[in-house]
């Protein structure tokens, strides 16, 4: 269970990236499946080459950022549909990732990584101290995302997602905000890939397949439970959703379900998270706001994607 929570917190970094494109910009970005592996591949290649693990992790995030820029340029300057632009970048990254890793898999078990001090101290997967360390790091990152969305540029990004035509008519450069959001989103995804590779001890060409579904499940599941009334709560919800997703997968494996069925379980979770709020089921369950005595205005809860 502790290992599942730690992994969920790491995937919370990816969920924050998916939140920026899916909820804030309202952009169907499928680059995630490729940029996650790109971040892992860059970090693994640099670590095995003897580079500093922190530098390798940041480089993994930077590689994801570049992938997001490519998708943004294809969509805004090339006038390619957003969905197709993400798919094209994702497919191209498959070959790029193989080039970076020099093969389909790069082991890191005998290399010094960011996780090595925690693993040597026996804090990973065994004690709640490891969970607290991961939570503190992800929470700081979440606060940075909150701060960005509260700046003038962040407000322009939100306005682009809410009504691109209107904000464009007011003179705002929507191409710039779109490219910037895609870059930041995939930068977070690449950073997550670099961290997960070091946590699991390997980088693999297939580790990003279907990850966009995991990200959507985290965002939708978390916001269905906590809501999205404020930026602070909405971003916290996606991190909580990532942890909930991992705990549910852990529970499914514990009761003996076939690991090959995990993708189907993920799809079922997304469908349930989308349908339950519309059926009003979650509104009958006391939320943490209700427990604090707060009132939930009618129609304020999420209505799904």
Automatic annotation (TrEMBL):
The chain crosses the membrane at residues 7-25, 54-75, 82-103, 123-145, 179-199, 205-223, 230-252, 264-282. Keywords: Cell membrane, Membrane, Transmembrane, Transmembrane helix. It is found in: Cell membrane. It holds the Pfam family BPD_transp_2. It is a multi-pass membrane protein. InterPro entries: ABC_transp_permease. This is ABC transport system permease protein.
